[in-house]
Write a structure and sequence with these properties.
Number of strands: 5
Strand content: 5-15%
Structural class: alpha/beta
Order of helices and strands: EHEHEHEHEHHHHHHHHHHH
Strand order of the largest sheet: 2-1-3-4-5
Distance between the termini: 60 Å
Helix content: 55-70%
Oligomer: single chain
Number of helices: 15
Radius of gyration: 33 Å
Length: 360
């Protein structure tokens, strides 16, 4: 391992000689006669653990070196002990403003300089080691969170796929809903900051969209797979998939106070609510509908229109788009409709790409 380095910067050779004698047994000593040489040493060496810096020097003074270190974000990495003959309080204040670790006035006592320097080096080393450990722990925690998130997403998608396959669909409906939801949220974040959605929340809502129809697992086959229009009574039973799904979530999700659970619950229960209150199951009106459910609602309707079902053929992209914009599929939030308009090309492209592959 390379020996740690101390950089001594002073235009007086006798001072450098005294300071060098204090540390040369334990450290590699670098020297500079002015601030310009000091900067060259800093740039050329990567193992400097302390800078002993004079103030008054030719070419470039000590504050010029401190300014350089500040501009290059080195003040937190390399501790500086300012050794100065100045006795003006303003000099000390200016030095501490630059973040120096200590100020020692000339004439100095060598053993005091040595003791203070060692304490400062140890302090900065401990701080650096702590930062490294915290960074390593942060990386490890993020990796654990990533694995847990991927595992949860796999289980959610797998369970949701059971519903899709039971409905005689390909199972790709879930993936498309997540794609569409994420695209809509992208435009919502950009053009409607009033909702205050963060990147993490966008990711959670997009993943939670997978559970929107999970309650259909509790709908009888005779209704779920019926190839024609449902009767009024059958439709009432079909509508209960929203509340059945929420009951399932309540039973199987332990952390019911988490944000991700909340998005799952909101989407599962409210993705059939409509802006004018004519949706179900709670007939919410306007912004009473959670924003997560508002976004998934349009994504779900669009995908249902452009996909074949047991009771209908697929609509063309532009027809499906017009049907939603014209209110033929219920009333949606003006903000979400604007995002849908902005995302029109994105939606069309996803559908066309999907058509290129056989998912059956």
């Amino acid at each position: 391992m390379d020996k740690q380095q101390i950089l001594i910067v002073d235009d007086e050779e006798v001072n450098r000689f005294i300071l060098k004698g204090l540390f040369q047994d334990d450290y590699e000593i670098l020297e500079a006669m002015n601030g310009q040489e000091a900067i060259a040493q800093i740039e050329a060496n990567q193992n400097i653990v302390l800078l002993l810096l004079d103030v008054v020097m030719p070419v470039l003074n000590g504050f010029g070196v401190l300014e350089y270190m500040k501009e290059h974000e080195l003040s937190e990495k390399i501790p500086v002990v300012l050794i100065t003959g100045e006795t003006v309080q303003d000099t000390d204040d200016q030095a501490y403003a630059y973040g120096v670790a200590d100020v020692i006035h000339k004439p100095f006592y060598p053993y005091i300089v040595k003791r203070r320097a060692r304490n400062i080096i140890e302090l900065y080393q401990n701080k650096r080691n702590m930062e490294i450990r915290l960074k390593e722990q942060e990386i490890a925690i993020k990796e654990q969170e990533k694995k847990l998130r991927e595992g949860n997403e796999f289980m959610i998608d797998a369970l949701s796929s059971v519903v899709e396959f039971r409905s005689l669909e390909t199972g790709e409906h879930i993936k498309r809903i997540k794609y569409f939801t994420r695209i809509l949220l992208k435009y919502l974040v950009k053009y409607f900051p009033k909702y205050g959605l963060t990147d993490q929340q966008v990711d959670q809502i997009a993943r939670a969209a997978a559970v929107h129809d999970i309650g259909k697992i509790g709908i009888p086959d005779a209704i779920l797979l019926k190839p024609g229009r449902l009767t009024a009574d059958e439709f009432e039973i079909m509508k209960t998939h929203t509340t059945i799904g929420c009951e399932m979530l309540e039973k199987f999700h332990e952390n019911q106070t988490g944000e991700f659970y909340r998005y799952c619950y909101e989407i599962c229960r409210h993705h059939h609510e409509r802006w004018d209150g004519n949706g179900y199951p709670d007939h919410l009106v306007g912004d009473e509908i959670p924003i997560s459910a508002q976004v998934v609602a349009i994504a779900d309707v669009y995908d249902a229109l452009v996909s074949p079902r047991v009771y209908k053929s697929a609509y063309a992209n532009n027809i499906a788009y017009d049907m939603i914009m014209n209110g033929e599929c219920g009333q949606f939030s003006p903000d979400i409709l604007e995002c849908f308009a902005l995302a029109k090309v994105d939606f069309f492209n996803i559908v066309e790409v999907i058509k290129m592959f056989n998912f059956s």
